[in-house]
């Protein structure tokens, strides 16, 4: 299972794909039910698409269309691309003509924030920026406290306003991250593209997973304490699966990349949370929030959100299944 990663920019080399059959690269025309696989890099992480039920020629067309769509969507959501929509919004505090995709993800973010009572909050970017800054400079304890207080004042998902295609921040200095949603969203969009193109069954992995069609997939969830170990096997059919790991992106030896928006702290209650939901974007956002919530709240939210299943791990190794 992939850990959460910072959003990156797709490179031409990262999009180089490999078409594999059951016996590797075969120049012979495969049977229509032979699986075809695209492997590459997307959003800074290894990605893949596995298709059943289409001939090789159609699979190649679908893979090329998927690459184009991944690139287009990354150009909207990439924090590291200064020309992306999210970078423009963070820089200017306003986006006059946001794309439909940006609006869709921002609306999903607001929904998950309300559902989790603020445990999921895209405005935590100010905390992440401050934490990253503090790893590079040496200042007094009082100066550190002032920086954290200033950053925390900018965290509130209600500061993001949407009016048609117009997006704005109600407070100067607010910045957002969509790293907790964009991978799931793009996974869903690629799945829809493949289905429209005639794919019958497959597994999409663009940082998060989405299975479609008749096949049931068995996916192992990594132990965040030792990536060579698997803590459980999850069966996935016509649903999305996302995992958020508190150990997946430490800013320093003591500091996780996951921040609690309501307190500013970054000591998650669970070091790993995996969520199965009918959509990968919902699984993505809820997995992030679930690392920060107690078990009872998670169970209540999971019921309201129609979560298919959740797998949680505490720091001491205790595993909770929902």
Overview of this structure, please?
By secondary structure, the protein is α+β, with helices and mostly antiparallel strands. The protein has a domain at 90-169: ApbE-like superfamily (T-fold, Orthogonal Bundle), CATH 1.10.3980. Helices cover 32% and strands 23% of the residues. It contains eight helices and 13 strands. It has helices at residues 56-77, 85-92, 100-115, 125-134, 141-152, 182-196, 280-290, 295-304, and strands at residues 36-42, 45-52, 94-95, 160-163, 166-169, 201-205, 209-212, 217-223, 226-236, 239-245, 272-277, 309-313, 319-321. The strands form three sheets. An eight-stranded antiparallel β-sheet has the order 1-2-6-7-10-11-12-13. A hairpin with a 5-residue loop joins β12 (309-313) and β13. α1 runs antiparallel to α6 and α6 packs antiparallel against α7 (280-290). The longest helix is centred in the N-terminal third of the chain and has 22 residues, at 56-77. 44% of the residues are buried. Residues 1-32 have low confidence and may be disordered.
């Amino acid at each position: 299972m992939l850990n959460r990663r910072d959003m990156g920019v797709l490179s031409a080399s990262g999009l180089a794909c490999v078409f594999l059959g059951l016996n590797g690269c075969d120049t012979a025309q495969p049977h229509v039910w032979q699986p075809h696989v695209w492997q590459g890099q997307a959003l800074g992480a290894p990605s893949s698409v596995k298709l059943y039920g289409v001939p090789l020629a159609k699979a190649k067309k679908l893979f090329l269309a998927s690459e184009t769509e991944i690139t287009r969507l990354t150009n909207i959501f990439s924090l590291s691309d200064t020309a992306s929509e999210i970078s423009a919004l963070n820089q200017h505090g306003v986006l006059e003509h946001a794309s439909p995709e940006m609006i869709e993800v921002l609306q999903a973010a607001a929904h998950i924030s309300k559902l989790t009572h603020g445990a999921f909050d895209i405005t935590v970017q100010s905390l992440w920026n401050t934490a990253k800054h503090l790893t590079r400079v040496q200042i007094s304890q009082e100066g550190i406290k002032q920086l954290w207080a200033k950053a925390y004042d900018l965290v509130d998902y209600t500061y993001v306003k949407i009016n048609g295609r117009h997006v704005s921040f109600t407070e100067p200095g607010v910045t957002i991250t969509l790293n907790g949603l964009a991978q799931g969203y793009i996974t869903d969009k690629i799945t829809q593209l493949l289905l429209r193109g005639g794919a019958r069954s497959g597994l999409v992995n663009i940082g998060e997973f989405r299975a479609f069609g008749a096949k049931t997939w068995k996916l192992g969830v990594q132990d965040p304490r030792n990536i060579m170990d698997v803590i459980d096997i999850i069966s996935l059919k016509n649903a999305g699966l996302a995992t958020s790991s508190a150990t997946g992106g430490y800013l320093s030896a003591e500091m996780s990349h996951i921040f609690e928006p309501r307190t500013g702290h970054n000591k998650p209650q669970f070091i790993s949370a995996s969520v199965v939901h009918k959509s990968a974007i919902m699984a993505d956002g809820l997995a992030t929030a679930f690392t920060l919530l107690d078990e009872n709240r998670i169970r209540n939210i999971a019921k309201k959100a129609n979560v298919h299943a959740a797998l949680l791990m505490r720091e001491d190794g205790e595993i909770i299944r929902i």
